[in-house]
Structures are given as C-alpha cells and as structure tokens.
Amino acid sequence: MKQLTNYQRVCGYLVKMFKAINEDYFMQELELPTITIQSSARSYGHVSTQKIWHSFDRASHELNLSADFLDRPIEDIAATLIHESVHIYALQNGIKDTSNRGVYHNKAFKRLAEERGHGALHPGG
Question: pLDDT for 58-67, tens place per residue?
C-alpha cells in the first residue's frame, strides 16, 4: 500500500473507508459527505448539521476528522467514521440523536449505534 503522506491521498483513503462502512453498516443508504481533515483538539470528528458543501447540482454534509488524532490505529479511525456515519444516518432520517443543543448523545443515538455494533459512548465523537 502506498504511504498516506499527503492530504489528497489521505482523504481518498477515508472516502474508500466511508464507502465500505456505508455498504457494511448502512446498506448504502448514506449520502456521501465531503470528508475534510482539520485540527480539532476537542473531538475525533464531527458532522455538519446542514449540507454546507455545494458543487454543481450536489450539496453534502461535511464529515471532518481531526488532524490532531489521525495518528491513532486504523481501527480507531474506522470507529470514528462509523460514529459520524450514525450521525449522518440520523440527519437523513430526521432522527434527533443529540440533546442540549448537540452537546450530548441521546438514547436514539445509542440505539442507532448499537444496532450497528458500535458503542454509543465512543469518546470525542
């Protein structure tokens, strides 16, 4: 495998991972987000609540992974992608999955995550 040494290559690999997660855990129901990497010491990742990326006839949510935590094992990166994918699923299906203005995950998030074999209390998500 080629080394992931530049932004484009890393983002391309993360898109491949997202597509595999979408197929394995969500029966390809998720819309492809725009994956970004930005520094964020507060969390491993986040998803925008609105479709903030626009190009031609397509709008998408942003799924950001923190550059500060990309040196974790690939299994942890995959867990973060699954976690954020659960948020995308909830957004697409009108499910409120957080409380206190998005600060805390609620029981709906816990249920959606556990249905996919993912612990709902994944830190930093």
Answer: 899 999 999 9
Instruction: Indicate the Cα dihedral angle 15, 95, 69, 27, nearest 10°.
Output: -30
**Residue range 31-53, pLDDT digits in tens:** 999 999 999 888 999 999 999 99
Pick from 42, 99, 80, 88: which is nearest to 62 by CA?
88
Q: Which residue has the tokens 């612990």?
A: 119
- pLDDT lower than 50: segments of the chain: 121-125
Does residue 95 contact residue 108 with C-beta atoms inside 8 Å?
Answer: yes
Ordered alpha helix ranges (H), 1-125? 7-26, 74-92, 107-115
